[in-house]
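Closing statement on the PMT sub-project.
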Amino acid sequence: MNSLFKKKILLIICGGISAYKSLELIRLLKKQGAKVKTILTKSSKEFITPLSVASLSQEKVYDDLFNAENEAEMDHISLSRWADVIVVAPATANTISKLNAGSSNDLASTVILASDKDIFLTPAMNIRMWEHPSTKENLKKLKSYGYKVIGPEIGDMACGEFGEGKMTEPKEILKEIEIYFNQLNKNKKFKALVTAGPTNEYIDPIRFITNKSSGKQGYALAKSLAKKGFETTLISGPTNLEIDNNINLIKIETAEEMFKATQDNLPTDVAIFSAAVADFKIKEKKNEKIKKQEYINLELEVNTDILNYVSKHNSLRPKLVIGFAAETNNVQENAKKKLLEKNCDWIVANDVSNKSIGFDSDFNEVSIFYKDEKISDEKLVMKKKSEISDEIIDRVIKQLN
Ligand code: PMT
C-alpha cells in the first residue's frame, strides 16, 4: 500500500502565481488516496478559485478565521488536530515572514501557530525576494523550529526573470511527502517509553512531598515520538496536562509506582527519563492524618533510581537510554558525572537556575551529552519544549536507524 493512503493533509495555499500548481498537487495527493483539506489565504483567491479547490479536493474549503459557520463545523484548533501533516504551497515571502513573527491574523497563520504537527513549506517568489537577507533569516529561524523546506528551484519565472525562487513541481513535492510518511512507517516498528512529571511521596493519607515539575517536557517528548510513528508509552506523575489518545498514558503518583510501571513496560527501543522523581520517600508513612504538634521529625529513605536500575539491567535495557539532568550549578560537570554513573547513552542537561526555562516553563534550553570516547556535547538553544523535543527525537531516529 502506498504511504499516502488515508493520510490527512492540510494544504495551505498562499497568494502567488504558482498557486495554480497547488491544484495539481491536490490532484496527485488524492490519486494516492490521501484526504486533503485546504485553507486559502485572502490573496490566494486572486489566483485560484475556492470552487476549483473544492472540486479537486472534494472537501469544503476554509478561508476565514472569523467565519461562524466554519468555526462551528471545524474550528481552527480541530483543523490542525485533524491533519497528519501541514503543507504550505506556495509559501510566499509574506507568509514566511508572518510565520517567523508568530503572527496569527488569519486562519492560515493561526492554524500553523496552534499546531504541533510537522509543517512543510514550499517557498515560491521572485529571485530578489528569495535572496533578500530578511527572507533568508526568516527561513533559517523557521528551520530551527523544525519546519521542513522543499525547494525552491532555479528556472524561468512568471515575472520574466531567471533564477532561484520557482516553486518545486507538484510531483517532486509529492515525493517528499511520500518519503516523510515512509519514514514514519519505518518508525512504527520502534517502541518508546517516557517518564514525566513529579512524584508524590506521602507523609500521611493527605500530605506529601513533591517538586515543581509540570510534566511539560516529558509530554512534549511523548508527543514528538508519537508524531514520528513510535508506539509510545508515557508514565506520568500527577500533572494537569492532556495527551493525544495515540499515546499509552499510565498515571502514577509515587516513585515506587513509577518504577513498577517502567519495569512492566520495558524493554523498548528507546527510553527517555525526563521525570523529576523524588530521591527520597518517607520511611514510615502514617496511615492516619498526623495531628498538629510542636515539631515533627520525618525520616526519609532513598527511592530506587529508576534510570540507574534500567540502564544497568541486561534484559530490560532499551537500545537507547536517555536521562535528564536538572542542574543549578556546574551543569557540564554534573551532567557528565550522571551520564557515567547512571550508565545512560545520552544525558540531556537543563540549567534550572534559569527561571525562564526548565521546571514548569513552556521553554527549555538543553545540552545533550553523548557517551562517546570524549563525551561530546551539543547545545539546543532556548526554544519551546515541543521544539526541543522534536530536535531530540530527530536525533533518536538517526541513532536507531
Ligand atoms: O516537568 P517540567 O516542568 O516540564 O520540567 C522538566 C524537567 C526540568 C523536570 C526536566 O527537563 C528534567 O530535567 N528532568 C529531570 C529532573 C531530575 O530530577 O533530574 P535528576 O538530576 O534528579 O535525575 C537524573 C535522572 O535520573 C533523570 O533522568 C531522572 O528522571 C532519573 N531519576 C532520578 C531519580 C530516581 N529515583 N529515578 C530516576 O529515574
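The first strand starts at residue 8 and ends at 13. With this model delivered, the sub-project is considered complete and its resources will be redirected to Aim 3.
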